[in-house]
Amino acid sequence: MYLPDNIFHIQIPYPSDLDIERGLWIIKDPLNSTQLLIFRCHESDRIRSWYRKMLSTLVESDLCRIVGALERYVEPHRAELYPYDNDQRIPSWWPRHISYKIPSRLQKKGMIAVIARILFPICPHGLRAKDVALALQPVRKNCSTRAAEKILDAIISVRVSEERCLGRHFQPLSNECPLAASPIRTNQPGAASMAERHNRIHRRRPVFNVNIPGVVHMVFFGVYESGRFFRYVSTSLNKRNIRLSDAEKSFELEVKRVEEGRKTPSSR
Q1: What InterPro entries is this protein classified in (predicted)?
Q2: Nearest 10 degrees: CA dihedral of 87, 91, 97, 103?
Q3: Which phi and psi (to 5°) does residue 125 adopt?
Q4: Torsions phi, psi of 78, nearest 5?
Q5: Cβ neighbours for 132, distance < 8 A, ≥ 6 positions apart
Q6: CA atoms of 95 and 28, how far apart (whole Å)
Q7: Is 102 in contact with 71 (CB distance < 8 Å)?
């Protein structure tokens, strides 16, 4: 199981009584501060139901901001690669049963489905707790009400606590995860060791993967925020809905972004 080194140093934005040894945590109900909620890391279905319940209490404008913030974080080049209202080019992190269009044109249930698809699976290539907090930071500053900000903080807090407990108890991660590095085809057989895999995908911003029929071995290429590249061999990708050309284009744009950053005076 892979968890980043800094998972235990993330500041929880909402009060939580965390008992890692027992795999549980307690928070005050953001809808009723006189009530306490107890979560256990094994109760993933209950936790996700709670996430959806909290999101359903937010107004559509706040949900729209959340969708937009997550989109910008997980796919900075979405507008070029996956323009809205194009059924032939839909990113894998978009729910299959939801029409692919501008978030503000979606119904409330549709926006919640998109958020749930991106935000809640805890899996080897998914958003980590720190990513979640960073992605939603702009939304927290612009919530429609203080109550909405409190609900969003509670969601982030539960997400952080869940990941901390899973890291302690080594629970299997979800297989249903839409987030992974963009794959590039390779004819080279073999796979890296588990330790090498973890090191190579550490602290990267996730983009998305593809299943290419007839190709057994694929390689993840990516760029760390520091500008260094990583390479990760995989033989078990199971995702779909993105063309290889899209993945190559996304990687090319990311490489150019890093190269341009190196040319700035503040870059090393």
Answers
A1: AFUB_07903/YDR124W-like_hel, AFUB_079030/YDR124W-like
A2: -90
A3: -115, 20
A4: -55, -45
A5: 119, 156, 159, 160
A6: 31
A7: no
Q: Which residues pair with 26 in a beta bridge?
A: 17, 38
Contact 157, 129 (CB under 8 A): no
The two structure tokens encoding residue 93: 């992190």
pTM for this prediction:
0.62
33-76 per-position pLDDT tens digit: 899 999 998 898 999 999 999 999 999 999 999 999 999 988 88
Residues making up the chain, counted from first to last: 268
Composition of the chain by helix, strand, coil, percent to 5: 45, 10, 45
The answer to whether the beta carbons of residues 136 and 69 sit under 8 Å apart is yes
Backbone φ and ψ for 266, nearest 5 degrees, come out as -80, -10
Cα angle, residue 260 at apex, residues 257 and 266 outer, rounded to 5°? 115
User: HSE on the CB side for 99, CA within 13 Å?
Assistant: 9
Report how far residue 204's alpha carbon sits from residue 248's, in angstroms, rounded to the nearest whole number.
17
